[in-house]
């Protein structure tokens, strides 16, 4: 015998199922987290994203009452890590830190990726960064004017390192050479740290990097700062001219770092992670570390997942236009 269920009965069953699911999700979120959380960093240890991730993760872990373990997954400008993050169980126990390179530009550079912007749920922006061009200490040009003249006299012969095609450092490079109107060879590495190491060793002419990872080497005179793509000088590098001061106002390199979770992560869990991120960046420990790195925490109105989503949407379109020739 076949039993037919009426529309009202089906609606009641659906409502009951939804209520049961909602209660289960709420209970899960209430207990979250019950074990350590993994934060995937799309680059090698020592670079900007890694330093910011470790700084924020320590304080987020304290706020959540659980350790946050850093997992460095380098390769393909960060897309290897994001592919790993997109496949993770959407339960809040695997999150990733990203930037305009990994979460926006990469979709133009690698159009056949196994993930899309919709594969991730934004958690919170955690840092604002500033891009710097730094040269090997024995590079013949002493300032930006001399550097541009040298580059134009030697097209294609200058090598600038970055953290991989699609990374935020790559975007700094692209913005710089475009604004300067020069032909330079952009050399990709599996992270900012190995690129900086080669610049220190004079294996390459310079690096496109964020202040968070290159400031110390500039202050220690291991490399020579050329220009910062900012509207104001950085407190940690008071002698480094801004792009406008150096005569290249079109060079802008102010970026962001944000946290993301796999699509399907419960909203209540996202809310807990967002609250922990907000608490973390407001601690004295993070503020001091960020100040040392010439990195800025988000303003009070910049902590929301919605704001981070707006940044991703904006930058996906921005770099679709800038990087059309780089698509693989």
UniProtKB/TrEMBL annotation:
Give UniProt keywords alphabetically: Signal
Among its keywords, does the record have Signal?
Answer: yes
Signal peptide residue numbers: 1-29
Q: Which domain of life is it from?
A: Bacteria
* Pfam families linked to this entry: TctC
Alphabetized InterPro entries for the sequence: BUG, Bug_dom1
Q: Which Gene3D superfamilies match?
A: Bordetella uptake gene, domain 1, Periplasmic binding protein-like II
Spell out the family assignment given in the record's similarity comment. Belongs to the UPF0065 (bug) family.
Q: What is this protein called?
A: Tripartite tricarboxylate transporter substrate binding protein BugD
Name the source organism: Bradyrhizobium barranii
């Amino acid at each position: 015998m076949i039993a037919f269920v009426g529309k009202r009965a089906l609606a009641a069953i659906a409502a009951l199922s939804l209520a049961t699911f909602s209660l289960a999700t709420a209970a899960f979120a209430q207990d979250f987290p019950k074990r350590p959380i993994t934060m995937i960093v799309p680059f090698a240890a020592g670079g900007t994203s890694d330093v910011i991730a470790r700084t924020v993760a320590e304080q987020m872990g304290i706020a959540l009452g659980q350790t946050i373990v850093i997992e460095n997954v380098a390769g393909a400008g960060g897309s290897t890590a994001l592919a790993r993050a997109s496949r993770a169980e959407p339960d809040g126990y695997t999150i990733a830190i990203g930037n305009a390179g990994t979460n926006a530009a990469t979709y133009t550079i690698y159009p056949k990726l196994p993930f899309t912007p919709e594969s991730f749920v934004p958690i919170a922006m955690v840092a604002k960064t500033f891009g710097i061009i730094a040269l090997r200490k024995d590079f013949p040009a002493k300032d930006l004017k001399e550097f541009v003249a040298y580059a134009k006299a030697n097209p294609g012969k200058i090598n600038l390192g970055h953290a991989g095609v699609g990374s935020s450092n790559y975007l700094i490079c692209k913005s710089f050479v475009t604004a300067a109107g020069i032909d330079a060879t952009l050399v990709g590495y599996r992270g900012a740290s190995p690129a900086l190491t080669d610049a220190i060793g004079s294996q390459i002419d310079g690096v496109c990097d964020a202040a968070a990872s290159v400031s110390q080497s500039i202050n220690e005179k291991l490399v020579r700062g050329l220009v910062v793509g900012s509207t104001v000088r950085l407190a940690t590098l008071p002698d480094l001219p801004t792009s406008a001061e150096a005569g290249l106002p079109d060079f802008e390199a102010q970026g962001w770092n944000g946290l993301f979770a796999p699509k399907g992560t419960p909203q209540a869990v996202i809310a807990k992670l967002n609250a922990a991120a907000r608490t973390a960046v407001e601690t004295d420990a993070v503020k001091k570390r960020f100040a040392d790195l010439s990195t800025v925490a988000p303003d009070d109105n910049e902590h929301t997942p919605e704001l981070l989503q707006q940044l991703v949407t904006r930058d996906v379109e921005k770099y679709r236009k800038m990087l059309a020739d780089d698509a693989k």
